[in-house]
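In response to reviewer comment 3 from the previous cycle, which asked for concrete evidence that the modeling workflow produces usable outputs, we include below a single protein chain processed end to end. The sequence was submitted unchanged, and the resulting structure tokens are shown without manual editing.
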Amino acid sequence: MKKLNKKKTSIIIEQVYLVKPKEVWRAITNKENMKLWYFTIDDFYLMEGRSFNFYEPGDTKKFHHHCVIKEIIPFKKFRHTWTYPKKSKGESMLTWNIEASKENTKITLIHEGIESFVDGGVDFARENYVVGWNEILEKTLKDFLEN
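The workflow returned the following structure tokens.
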């Protein structure tokens, strides 16, 4: 059995996109856009304190994600919790920071607290999140925004 690292280590991923912050903001906060590159989140409504739920793509529906929106700074920051109520007692925090420059936009994604999912088993290992977030930011979101 693989052991999980209990050390608190945030995942921080930066990615630059050749679009304006407004386009990035719409991609990460509009449920119709999210369906095209991220997850289908039918109960998503952009308002602090609101919760939303989703599953991984496909029919398996193994991982129920439950999130609560904690902070909204339009075109700059979107922050929400990230939990798996049927798999773990843990709670993590996901922050999308958006920074504009003249010709592009940088996202810094910070996922804190994944070590709290240790009770969920090896599916919740840090390296799984690193692979997943890199794929999402470097491929699916990039393709959505730039193609």
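The beta strands are 11-17, 51-55, 64-73, 77-83, 91-100, 105-112. We consider this sufficient to address the reviewer's concern, and the full set will be provided in the supplementary archive.
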